[in-house]
């Protein structure tokens, strides 16, 4: 586990207050697992993101918030290479995504996992086969081992093994989210992208989901990039929070720093009536 | 860490402290080395009985998959009566093993499918019942269309004319070039092939009878119906099927709108208007192609071609062909709608239903044409 962050295991309540290690921009740049520089994305003559910079540090859980239509999903899709950017560079695991060779890109894709908002499970495959898709594509494992790993991952995300042989159309929304997370975790990735992981889950399920992500991050040094609107998630598991607005990252920092920020949108998000009732 | 790009091979070294055998593990126990990990553990022959120590302090990498293989090894050893102890774990790895302990996967039994004669007969039976249900579903939709049409006669506002017009544009105007081109080519082929044989009897001119009657009575309408089944039938199934997958059809129900009125009637109506128009255009294109070949290949000039055509072909011949067109359209539209409504949740079922819609529609178009032929023969037309 040489590449793991040296922070020790902390109870999740302290997670929100951040770590001293994350302070200082030089340190952040050195440890960054994903760095976005001056990225500009637009459709037609409308700019969605304009000169955006972002660093995600190895081992952290970064929560990403922003109003509807500010381009949170666009940014995530751009990082994943699903949208074209007009300007700027994106480095994942220290590799520039524009200049990486196909082999390097395959390496990067093996090391990240993605949970799409709607789950994006392959509808013609069972849940078990869905989880095994990345294993089959990238590794040569015995069927027995793949079955065991698939059931293990299912169990980890809190799904009953009975769900393994079901098709996605037979699952509820929350189960699809979990199965999809299991697929994202199939190759034990270093970096996972989660697009609204807890939306559509009941509060107990959402809390378990948060707990799972925190646990994985602690034990495996998993880095998490999470687009979310769930204030509970932001408060309980996220080390840092980034706010997207005005085509840029408006602010990035711990929850405490966000609470002190007096940008109107940030203020109403974190200190609005709804937020204060919960935090 | 998980997927290391330069991982080192997992190794296992046997040693003993006192009478307790100790397995010293090193290297990366991660998912891309998992086959090696499995092999290393399978080759390990643990001496003696009783306690075994596994020294894990030398591991340079460990993820859930590697931990699972170790956990499984421990399980197998303990089943054989040994006590296995993991040493040299730091806090994080200890938590990882604790988590695995909590999430021990149950052994999965997947259903085995056997094939036997009884299963085959069962499948036939199911298919027969399925075919009967299809027929009933078509009758159901036909009846419901009738009811909706009656309601529209009372309240003309309920007809979704814009929707029907859009559908007409797609199914009719969009199909004109391909239907006319195909009919033209078929006309050329009939005229050329017919002419080739008729010339041997010196009966060149009869190619006009052949092409005229064949095209107007049968070929024009059948070709058009097949083309529409492939083009618009598949589109209707895919549209309605995709709406079913995304629960749009259910939303219509809940809002209190009738699927037949909103989705099916405009499409079927547009098809029933479009196919006669397309058939007429197809007839013209085929006759034009036939005339062109007769002129170039059989030296029958346009003037005698037209005269002969007027002598042999009556309005009745033309009407016999054209009257079949709305029925063909109705069949294509009904089958496409029924299949579309049968789509389940998966992309696979959408593809299957679309294929079935086209196959069934083309088959039934030909069956219905046969029934019409028998009917017309019986009434002496």
TrEMBL record, chain A:
SMART domains attached to this UniProt entry: AAA (SM00382)
InterPro entries in the record: AAA+_ATPase (IPR003593), ABC_transporter-like_ATP-bd (IPR003439), ABC_transporter-like_CS (IPR017871), P-loop_NTPase (IPR027417)
Domain named ABC transporter: residues: 34-271
Pfam families tied to this protein: ABC_tran
Keywords, alphabetical: ATP-binding, Nucleotide-binding, Transport
ATP-binding is among the record's keywords: yes
SUPFAM superfamilies hit by this protein: P-loop containing nucleoside triphosphate hydrolases
Family assignment from sequence similarity: Belongs to the ABC transporter superfamily.
Name of the protein: ABC transporter ATP-binding protein
TrEMBL record, chain B:
GO molecular function: phospholipid transporter activity
Entry keywords, A to Z: Membrane, Transmembrane, Transmembrane helix
Span of the signal peptide: none
Highest taxon of source: Bacteria
MlaB-like STAS domain segment(s): 23-92
Cited SUPFAM superfamilies: SpoIIaa-like
TM stretches of this protein: 136-154, 175-198, 210-230, 280-298, 318-338, 358-379
GO CC terms of this entry: ATP-binding cassette (ABC) transporter complex
InterPro entries: MlaB-like_STAS, Permease_MalE, STAS_dom_sf
Biological classification of the source: Bacteria, Pseudomonadati, Pseudomonadota, Alphaproteobacteria, Hyphomicrobiales
Species this chain originates from: Roseibium limicola
The protein, known as: ABC transporter permease
